[in-house]
Amino acid sequence: MAKQSKIAVVGSANVDLSIFNDMFPRPGETIFGKKFDLGFGGKGANQAVAASRCGASVGMVAKVGSDLFGPATIKNFECQGIDASHVLIAEGISSGVAPIFVDSSGQNRIVVIKGANELLSPDDVDAAASLLAQADTILLQFEIPLATVYHTIRFAKAHGVRCIVNPAPALPLDFKEIAAADYFVPNESEAEAITGIPVHDLEEAKRCAGYLLARGLAKVVITLGERGSLLATSEGMELIPAFKVDPIDSTGAGDAFIGSFAVFLAEGLTDRETLTRASLYAALSTTHVGTQKSFPSREEFDNEWERRGN
Ligand code: RIB
Known about the structure:
310 residues, alpha/beta, UDP-N-acetylmuramoyl-L-alanine:D-glutamate ligase, 6-stranded parallel sheet, 4-stranded mixed sheet, 13 strands, 35% helix, binds alpha-D-ribofuranose
């Protein structure tokens, strides 16, 4: 049995309002939708929940609003077995929320209102120093201020903690700050927005990964949806294929990938083994509706991993 990994997430917590429909209204139009789902989300929180479901001990550093969603979000972390002692309520601001539009193919379009996530500061990171310094891995995304992301990368480097950066959603960034991260994991549209290089096929993804390596990043993983993920290091590039499933809602699949990736890596697997497992974990998450609630338990994952002959 692998040792229990310790994962810390410095990131966002949102409430997701998912609307399922085949079409979306034009300006001035009112239409009926098919279905609605309310659930806990936010890229940081989702990655924390995925890591916890995969069996890690997880701590979260986040800010929520002084509204109905704030205390409920903290309670959700606790129910998921996540240490929420560094999830603070910010007065006079809303929690992060995300209206999500899911079409009949399971693809999503998301609008994030950052709310309290925007107030997560470098001081909040320092206040969580004891939690963060004990972690095997710190996970970061871009739904909190970039100054806080950079500060946390420096903290991780100074304390010898592995740091994985998921630049989602994509923002113009300072490569000198990001280069200290151990893994940089964008999806294809984020990779394209950050580098300016289109990513429509594997060759373009390789060119894009090469650009990122040349800017000092040690290991780059570009997730390519149903085509798999591209691992790029100074030793070469390799495509890790995806697993076939029938998706109904892809929301949070990227977060399922990153959260599970952190756990498998901390358990001592190679990059290739880690990415293969994370790829199945993410694929399984698309077979259920919602974000965190679609993430399989470790037992469900292990059973499916074996069933597929691994
Ligand atoms: O990656 C999916 C997440 O993006 C959703 O949970 C939503 O809250 C946004 O942060």
